[in-house]
Amino acid sequence: MPVSAPVRAAVVGTGGIVTGSHLPALRELHGRVRLVAAVDTDPARLTAFRELAGDEVHGYGDLAEMLAAERPDLVLLGTPPALHAEQARAALRAGAWVLCEKPLCLSLAEYDAIAAAEGAEEGGPYASVVFQHRYGSGAVHARELLRSGELGRPLVAHCQTTWYRDRAYYSVPWRGRWATEGGGPTMGHGIHQMDLLLHLLGDWAEVRAMAGRLVHDVESEDVSTALVRFADGTLATVVNSVLSPDEVSRIRIDCADATVELTHLYGHSNDDWAYTPAVHARDDERRTTHWRTPAADVPSSHAAQLDGFLDAMEKGVRPPGSGTEARRTLEFLAALYKSAFTGRPVGAGEIGPDDPYYLAMHGNHPDWAPKEQ
């Protein structure tokens, strides 16, 4: 059923991602959405958030209490990853649509449980993941060019998330642990670039991967690499790291007629996209002019994604970044981990309910699964 504007929204968790990204997005779209409630188990943090957001935002220490009292149309989840699946299901059962920080959940099993809690009929409610790099004018333009064949057939791609995180970063108790974060940079950092790569190129077919725990004393990996074959034959490399002093996020796709490249760190605008024509295409000015990013510059952001999400709510249709699209990205991560830990290639659709990697990204592998305390 469509949801009328202004949409009544609640945030769950009032830490940095909510105050720094979700709250500005809500303010930017204030004519379409109104923040009515916030939930946090830390009373001091909740009070500080309400002082920032405004007294009209009601505060709660419990999600169930908030859902019963406020009946929000939309719930924005900004809590630690281990809480996402249960909170998403609770919000969906209460009739609220859900926009959740990545990862939406820690396994394919959890994802399928969330999907089962979505609206049985067309019209929602639905749950979607915050994949803001799909949004913004540069990404929309690149996807249109790639999907239309305007750049020629995609042939070779590279997806790079090489960041740096020090020991203090992992002093936060839930980081670096399978049960609370779901994985290392593959799950918690590179997921954005990998999702964007899949968004641009479509279905993947096979993954061959490696992972290592090279520096940090954590349960999960601190670096992973992969070779990927896409359904259309495109070959790609993927690198995810938290060991890299020179930090960069990059996607490069070499097509028959041009190379498209995105280079940024935590967000992109039109200037971060570059198109290099192949030798045989350089004199076709009409064509290469069309490749340039559009004049309107909409940066990737939580606001850009929320705007599209609100469109879906008002139309009563499934929002982007949900359903089979979101599951495809999570399945890709599970396949990367399975390939890295077993040493063999993993194909799309291989990980079913009887597979240990369906239940957890570590797959109970003896070298990677959490040790009993």
Structural commentary:
There is one protein chain. The protein is α/β, with parallel strands linked by helices and 373 residues long. The protein has 2 domains: 7-132 and 303-318, Rossmann fold; 138-298, Dihydrodipicolinate Reductase, domain 2. It is built from 13 helices and 14 strands. An 8-stranded mixed beta sheet has the order 13-12-11-7-10-9-8-14. Strands 3-2-1-4-5-6 form a 6-stranded parallel beta sheet, sandwiched between helices. Strand 12 (258-264) and strand 13 form a beta hairpin.
Keywords:
single chain, 2 domains, 6-stranded parallel beta sheet, 13 helices
How many strands?
Answer: 14
Largest sheet: 8 strands, mixed
Number of helices: 13
Head-to-tail CA distance between termini: 48 Å
CATH topology term of the largest domain: Dihydrodipicolinate Reductase, domain 2
Widest sheet, order of strands: 13-12-11-7-10-9-8-14
Query: Low-confidence spans: pLDDT under 50, at least 5 residues?
Result: none
Structural class call reads: alpha/beta
Order of helices and strands: EHEHEHEHEHEHEHHHEEEEEEHHHEH
Q: What do we call the CATH homologous superfamily of the largest domain?
A: Dihydrodipicolinate Reductase, domain 2
Strand fraction equals 15-25%
Mean pLDDT over the residues: 96
The CATH class assignment of the largest domain is Alpha Beta
Helical proportion, percent range: 25-40%
Overall 3D shape: globular
Tally of separate domains: 2
Rg result: 21 Å
Question: Which second-level CATH architecture of the largest domain applies?
Answer: 2-Layer Sandwich
